[in-house]
Amino acid sequence: MPVAGVDVGSVAAKAVVLDEEKKIVLGRAVLPTGWNSREAGEQVLQAACRAAGVEPAGLRRVVGTGYGRVALPFADKVVTEISCHARGASWLFPATGVVLDIGGQDSKVIAVEDGAVQDFVMNDKCAAGTGRFLQVLSGILGMELPELGQAAATGKPVSISSMCAVFAETEIIGLLAQGTAPADIAAGVYLSIARRMRGLAARIPLKGECTFTGGLATSPAFSGLLAAELGVPVNVPDDPQTVGALGAALVAAR
């Protein structure tokens, strides 16, 4: 029978429907979370079920995760997103020893062994270095997020010295006023985020392979920059945004 995992984050809601026995992904979906976590969870689960060709009522079990997991009354169980990212990343890349996740609200580095969390560090005190900050940046520069990544790949990074999202936003507006090219600003922000992740990763032993998850992992420019800063290769899943939901679905299949 099919099972499902639903990951409701601060920016996006994700769902994965999994064949319980064969451990094959039948369908997945990603939608903006908006202001209502419960509604976002219901809608993304329905979308994933449509993609899988199954009815929500036909799911044997649903596991919720993410910041909005407590708002999912249909979930049979809720699990932290840290555990789900560890499980999902390890299922995709069995040699994973470290998971690097940049979400909408925080950044995490998770030490993993056989799919289980051994330790983790996270930055949840400031929006700088998260998906939410990149949304603000894309608005300032007048670019969609995919365009932002393309611009960063071609730009020459300028220094973004502010470590606070509010001050960084002011700094970026000042750089634009000085005539700095948007591509150079985008490249500078990407480099700043990669260095923040390197700082977090320095607090966790880099054993085994590194796997990068979250929405920012969809940017080849940033993934390459992160690997260069860490000095090690980085695995990037085909659909990095849904790794947490996949991990939740794997928990549901147990």
UniProtKB/TrEMBL annotation:
A single MF term (Gene Ontology): metal ion binding
Signal peptide: none
Entry-linked Pfam families: BcrAD_BadFG (PF01869)
UniProt keyword Iron, yes or no: yes
Alphabetical keyword list: Iron, Iron-sulfur, Metal-binding
ATPase BadF/BadG/BcrA/BcrD type domain boundaries: 5-252
UniProt entry tagged with the keyword Iron: yes
Top-rank taxon, per record: Bacteria
Gene3D superfamilies: 3.30.420.40
UniProt cofactor(s): [4Fe-4S] cluster
Protein's name according to its UniProt entry: 2-hydroxyglutaryl-CoA dehydratase
Species for this entry: Desulfovibrio piger
Lineage: Bacteria, Pseudomonadati, Thermodesulfobacteriota, Desulfovibrionia, Desulfovibrionales
